[in-house]
Every structure is written in structure tokens, then in C-alpha cells.
Amino acid sequence: MATRWTAAGVSALMQFYGPLRSFFGAGGTGQEAWAFLEQVGAEDWRQGLKPTIFDMNELRSRAGASLNAQAAFAAGEMGQEFDRSMWAWAPWSDQGISGNPFESYQVRFSVTTTTLEGDEALHMQFPLDQPLDGLTKEQIIDKLTELGQEAIDSDSPRVLAQLDGRLGGTIVDISDIEIMRV
After folding, report:
1. What's the whole-model pTM score?
2. Closest to 125 measured CA to CA, from 108, 142, 140, 141
3. 127 near 106, Cβ under 8 Å?
4. 94-110 CB burial, b ≥16 within 10 A, e <16
5. Phi, psi at residue 29, to the nearest 5°?
6. CA angle (139 as vertex; 119, 134 as ends), nearest 5
7. Contacts with 141 (C-beta within 8 Å, 6 or more apart), sequence order
């Protein structure tokens, strides 16, 4: 009988990280998460996989770290320097075990754009292969806005799909910034 989480068990649950992160953020527990997975239509998710409550609790811990970092970044003042409280290890990363000295981040965020047809909400994700220490919250938001606007202007197929094929748009708001170190 398992007495701690396993990489295989956490990996089996990782495909549901997004919905589970939202579930845990709304106050759901590791024990309740099993029923939640059934509820969201993942009834065949256990096929051949044997994750345990320890695996679920580990995923909950990783989601909690991400939610706490997102809240810390959101609560920071615009001129505040980026610090360790504002990022979390990506839930799929080796969490520094490999000893990779290079800082690399995956950033997910939402933007609102104004197009000729009105406002549109988009979800974006970009790698940032640079140290963020020393940058302010405002500088990071400016960088994400620049990357997002470049993606919109490039007519990226992924962005066009979110805009239902409509071209163009200008970012007017950025929110829900989640910074994960990979």
C-alpha cells in the first residue's frame, strides 16, 4: 500500500491539472477531488492508472503554490520588485532537482482586446527564458502585453482561433497572471 505520492500517480492526474487547480482554488479538498473528476466527465480517467490520495494531495499542494503565487503577484504594487513569492514551480517541472542554473518561466494570463467587433477575452501562454529578478511588476506586465500584442498582430493561428478568425485587436487589459518556473 502506498504511503507517499509517486511521479506516476501525479503524472496520471496532471492531464486534469487545469480543472483541478480551479476546483482547489474554490476550496475543494483532495478527498472531494475524486468525485469532481467524475462530475466533469472524466469517468474513464482511471483507465490503467492507479493514482492515490497521496498523489492527489501532492497535486493539490502544487496547485495551491501556484494559486498563492498568482495572488501575491496580483496583490503587489506596480513598482514592486518581482520576488520569490510571485512564482511557483510549474506542476509538471522537476522543481529544481535537475540543478538547471538557467531561469526559465512559463507565464499564463488573460487579456481583453478591443476589435472592430467589440471586446474579446483571450487566454495566452508564453515562455520567458530570462531572469525576472530585478524587474518590477509593471515591467513584467509591459513585457507580457508586448508579447501578447505581437501574437495578435502576427495572426497566430492559436490567437485567431480564440478570436473566431477575426483579425487584429488591441490589448486593453491583462489579468490572471500565473508565473511558473520550469
Report:
1. 0.85
2. 108
3. yes
4. eeeeeeeeeeebbbbbe
5. -100, 165
6. 155
7. 78, 174, 177
Q: In terms of C-beta density within 10 A (0-12 exposed, 13-18 middle, 19 or more buried), how is residue 115 classed?
A: middle
pLDDT tens track for 91-140: 988 776 656 667 889 999 998 888 777 788 888 888 888 889 889 999 99
The answer to whether 169 and 115 are in contact (CB under 8 A) is yes
Kindly give, in sequence order, each residue whose CB lies less than 8 Å from that of residue 139, ignoring residues fewer than 6 positions away. none
- Give the residue ranges of DSSP H helices in the chain: 7-14, 17-25, 30-39, 53-75, 137-153, 157-162
Cell numbers standing for residue 176: 490572471
Phi and psi at 80, nearest 5°, equal -70, 135
Cα 95–142–124 angle (5° rounding)? Answer: 60
- 178 CB burial (10 A radius; 0-12, 13-18, 19+): buried
Decide: helix, strand or coil at residue 125. strand
Cell readout for 115 is: 476589435
As a whole number of angstroms, the distance between CA 127 and CA 108 comes to 9
Q: How far apart are CA 22 and CA 67, in angstroms?
A: 9
Q: 1 burial class (0-12, 13-18, 19+ CB within 10 angstroms)?
A: exposed
C-alpha–C-alpha distance, residues 122 and 162, integer Å:
6
Name the one residue in this structure whose C-alpha cell is 496532471. 14
